[in-house]
User: Which sequence fits this backbone?
């Protein structure tokens, strides 16, 4: 499929964004652990680093675990595909949360996501958010031949954490990594082409290994923001 090749080919490395007086950061956390979460911890470091040059930035926090997103219902899907002039009150209510989440996404300059791998993919709590915001006519369009992402002008930073080693490219479990490749495709699909990923593996190893891997990810974050 030609559109698929073009879509996957649009992702590119991101260096430090230029300073600005006011930006909005949408932070999305999805670890079921509120304490001891490596993804949240590294996400905190990323947030602090991003804010260092933007002290006046506004942060919108969306914790999909402490404030769960309901799975889409049949009425929600019906509303997604109903023309605006045919929407009923019931359909408007069914799509109200989707409207809110999409508004948050569109208002953000930066997207910061902290995502642990659960059973080789994204946590179901995050998938529920994804199903609410990937919406035809709102975050992507389709002309019968090509898909076009509508969420443009954003930069995404994503922290991915893995319980074991070997999920990087060419490593033993790389073919089982449906986390980072999925998120890369998803962000591209809705139009976010500027992105950078940070990974932490072996989060279930002994404390010394975990600490070293977290420190390595933190250094990678700092190095990214020093690059201009």
Assistant:
């Amino acid at each position: 499929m030609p559109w698929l090749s073009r879509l996957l080919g649009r992702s590119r490395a991101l260096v430090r964004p230029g300073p600005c007086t006011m930006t909005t950061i949408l932070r999305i956390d999805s670890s079921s652990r509120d304490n001891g979460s490596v993804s949240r911890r590294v996400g905190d470091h990323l947030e602090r680093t991003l804010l260092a040059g933007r002290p006046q930035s506004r942060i919108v926090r969306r914790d999909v675990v402490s404030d769960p997103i309901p799975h889409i219902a049949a009425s929600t899907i019906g509303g997604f595909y109903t023309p605006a002039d045919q929407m009923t009150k019931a359909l408007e209510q069914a799509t109200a949360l989707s409207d809110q989440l999409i508004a948050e996404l569109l208002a953000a300059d930066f997207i910061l996501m902290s995502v642990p791998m659960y059973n080789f993919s994204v946590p179901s709590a995050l998938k529920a958010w994804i199903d609410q915001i990937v919406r035809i006519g709102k975050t992507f369009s389709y002309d019968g031949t090509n898909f076009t992402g509508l969420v443009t002008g954003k930069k995404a930073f994503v922290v991915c954490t893995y319980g074991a080693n070997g999920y990087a490219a060419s490593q033993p479990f790389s073919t089982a990594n449906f986390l980072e490749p999925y998120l890369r495709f998803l962000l591209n699909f809705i139009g976010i082409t500027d992105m950078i990923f940070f990974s932490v593996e072996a989060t279930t190893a002994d404390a010394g290994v975990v600490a070293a891997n977290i420190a390595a990810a933190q250094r990678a974050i700092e190095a990214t923001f020093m690059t201009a």
